[in-house]
Structures are given as C-alpha cells and as structure tokens.
C-alpha cells in the first residue's frame, strides 16, 4: 500500500484516511516531509530573483505539505489514542521535529530574504502585510539573529525541551492511570449515581481488576465524584491520589523543574530576562507586568470570598472541613440555600441530546449551520463520530469530529485540534476535532453528563467554530492560530448558550420520561451562580501564579526541591491555602509543561475579560439571533490571526474591552456576595 501521508487525502475535505494509516507509515512520512520541506526552503533561499512577497513569503506558506499532514495526525493521536507503539513514535519524532523547525527558522538565506521583503513592504496591506510582520517576528523570536554558536546551543535546547515535554506527557498519562482509585467495597461508593458505579466497574475490568470498581481521574485537582461520595474516608483517598500525581516515585515533578530551568536558559539566550517575558512578547497582553497587576488585583477579593464560603461549609458540616470535604458540602449548601442539586440534573443531560439539541442547535440558530452525520467517514477510533458542517445555503464548511469518551490511551482534560486548517491559498477547508473525557457507560446505557461536562461540551465547540469559520488566505493565520491569550475567548463566549432559554429547552430533557428541565430550575441555577466563585477563582489564580512563578526563573536557577518551590511560590502571592489547592499542581499541570501554555495559563482570565464583555453585548442586542451571530462570525470568528485580534474585537464591540462585566460575573466587584449564612 502507498503511504497515505505522501499525498493529500482524496476523502471529503482531505480528512485523513485513517482506515489506511498504519503505525509503520508515520516515520517514513516524517522522513519524506523533512526532506521535502528543506528542499523547498533551499529553493526559496537560492532563488536568483530578488526577494519578493510571492517568491519568499507565499512560497514559504506553501511549503511542507507532507510534514503538515503527518504531524497533524500524530499530534492528535498521541493525545487521544496513545498506544505503546504511538508513544514510541512520539518519543522518536518529537526531537527531530524540533530540530527540523530550527532548520527552517535558523536558515540564514531564508532569513535574509524575509528581511529583504520586510524592508520593501510599504506597498502591501491587509493579510499580506501582516504575514510579513508576523514572519519577521517569528524568525527573530526563533533565534535567526543569533551568532552561530548561540544558534547551535539553541538547537540543542529546543531538541531537549521537546524530549522533556513528550516525556512529561507520557509520564503523566501513566501516573494518572496508576493513581486511579480501586474500591473493593460497593458501600464506599454511596452517593455515586448508579450509571457511574456501572462505569467504574467496567473501568476496573478494563484495567485488569477481576472485581471492584475503579474511580479514574480527570486532569484537574478537583474530581467530580468528590461532590457526591458520602463516605469521608473514600473522599480523602480520592483527593490525595489526585494531588499526589507526579509524586510517589513518578517523574513529572522533576521533569517540570527541568523544563522550567531550560526554558529560562533559552529565554536568556534570546535576550529575555525569563521565559514569561519571552512568552508574553507574542501575546495580546501588553506586558508581564500588566498580567501580574490584573492577577494581583483579583487575589484578595477571591480569597476573601473563598474564606467566607469555607465558613458556610463548616457550619453546614458541623465540623472543620478538609479539602476533600469542600465539593461535597458545597453541593449541600447549594441544595439547601438555592434549591439546586447539580447531581440530580444529570438525567436531563444525555450526551446525544446535549450535542444535537444543545450545542448544534445553538449553532443552527445563531449561524444558520446544519450538521449532517457522515457514517461513511471513519475516525481514528471507533468511538468517534463525524459530521459534515454546512452553511444555510447548503455549501460545505468543513468536517467536525467528536471524540467524547475516556480511555486508558487518552490524555485527561478536554481540547480541540485540527487535522486540516482552512486556507484560501491552499484551497483547504477545516477538519476539526473535539476531545472530552466522559466515562463510557455500559453497552446500551445512556451517557449522562454532569453540569460541568455540558459546559465543557459547549466550550470546546466554541473552539471548533473558531476553526470552522476561518476565512483567511494563509494557513499560518487559520482559525485558532491566534495568540494564546486570545484563543480561549470565542470558546468561553459559546458557553453562554448552555442555559439560554431557546437552547436549554431544546436539549435538557429527562432521558427516561422526556420531561423538560423546568425553567424555574434554570432560574435557580442562575440565582446560585456566584455560589462557589470564591473557590473557583482562587484555585484558578493559584494555578496561574504558579505557572508564572515557574516561568519567571532567571537563567541559571536550579530547583532541587520542586514541591518546596511550589509551596513557596504560592505563599509569596498569598495563595498557600490548605483548603484550596491550585487547579493544577506541578506534577499534573500538562497545560504548561506539555501543552503549549507555558507562562500562558493566565490567558483564560485575560480572555474572559473579552468574553464577559461580549456576553453583555449579546444580551443587550437580542441574544440568540442570526443578525448577532453573523456579526460575530464575520467580524471576529472568521478573522483568525489575519488581523490584530484585539482590533477585530474593537471592530466587533465598537470599543476596547471593559473589565467590569468580568468582576461582576466572578463576584469581585465589591457588591454583596452570593453567600447565605
């Protein structure tokens, strides 16, 4: 069989031909892709014609087709279905891919031509001009201006960083699987929904246990089962195995320290005081100082709210609460004071209904989209569903893949990625995938979601829309290829439709009786919105400031005791709270150590400023209707990084973003807190 990566797929929208891809196809395809793109780069650099936008910038954008195809598939598979063979491939390929990127960005002839085009770019405009400025900046940040000795050291560090990040990711997957809590006594699972008990039994069998139940871990510190398990000892064990990932002989904690140390050394080589300054240089935030000021402004109020919540919890419990008690008693208070029991809502949140009647329905109403199942198209795993997305005039927009179930070969968390990125230059439309980690029910049983999982379903689809709606010429600017502190903005906006009356009434129906979720329950959820925001904001800020602490290290720093460093970093910012650990600790902070968010976890809050302001705009202008959707799609979602993202926001909103809506949303504006004593 011919290697399926060596030519564009003939399937609709160039969907990779997963049925034809064998593990042994990857390495030869990478070899061919490296050789092909380097030859293309040599041709650009050696062109006897004077450097021009067409023969340099556009030619560079056209290069590397084979490499892009195989890298996109392996990137997705290594996160979503990392068999032992795939893990070995990733280990072999990652450092070579890093070295290849250096061969492109540190090519002296190519850099000279790019600078020559930059010097004569006065006649360019729009996306063409932005391509010149962005390429100039990317080559500079990649070290193209360094002397040969500095470039050689940079190459060595980039390869090693790639190796370490891959190792961290794979060690974390193994540590998470190993830390799953096996329970032998059914009575210890009291409070857990029957469908979750069944899923836990199935997970135990799949993990090799002949009896019992297995509570698998999600990526963040807080485990959903802590909200409902009535046995305090089992809650303690579940909490401690969650926060202990990376310790107890696992290697993620020392790997995290080495990654941070090496990133600091690389930043210094490139002329930055630390990695955080380097990372912020390519974001929408004006400076590291501005980010720190925003976070520092929020910490005191968030902690005060959290402490007030803790007092309410202790009163409800009748004793001092421990970290493993927080979620359990928080839900009790929500039920008592707001008459809302989120656990009891699960029968109304069945996956297929939430997807079709919720996520897709909102997109249909707002943007005129339709979603046609394509059972004739195959994903990389049997669990995957494929839909063709069409505009209201019937024209095809792209493909959407849904991969919703957890499995031992899948990383925790939730994410969106692309197999094919939209590009006018290459004539390509988007093929995107959403990944979640929902426990798979027993055969024939419904997949019932938690409230937070429904939020995540809407959130990740916001990323998918960002990719699908892209209308740019150059693939470098496509869809979600925007600054890290902007990329979460469209996805967070999409969460708003989850409880919108026109949407929730379409999907939130009891999976047995068909009864709609009462609107008065939705009203109660909204009324209880601020309950728990103290905890949520505090755990998020702790993770964010921990990220910045790791990535503000000066070059030459060595961290011999990473967990002590973590503790001291949290103490320095007033967030060393025993009751509220960070949302992610160093041992399982995949976002920053193996996920591209190094010194960028602040971006969720930074993006939320834009999000909260945009939600206010939708509410002021009629909410869920085509006029609003078309404006948001055309003015913002379709732009990718083809223009300054903040300018796209200004054009859409009519002004710069204001922080007031965010402060109100999180209960940080000084108004009365939603805490009932």
Key descriptive features of the protein:
677 residues, five-stranded mixed β-sheet, 6% strand
The end-to-end span amounts to 70 Å
Question: Within the CATH hierarchy, at the fold level, what is the topology of one domain?
Answer: Glutathione S-transferase Yfyf (Class Pi), Chain A, domain 2
Approximate helicity band? 40-55%
Strand order of the largest sheet: 3-4-5-7-6
CATH superfamily of one domain: Endopeptidase. Chain P, domain 1
Query: How many strands, what sense, and barrel or not for the largest sheet?
Result: 5 strands, mixed
Spans where pLDDT lies below 50 across 5 or more residues: 672-677
Shape: globular
Gyration radius (Cα, Å) is 25 Å
What is the CATH domain class of one domain? Mainly Alpha
CATH architecture assignment name of one domain:
Up-down Bundle
Number of strands: 7
Class computed from helices, strands and strand pairing: alpha+beta
- H/I helix tally: 25
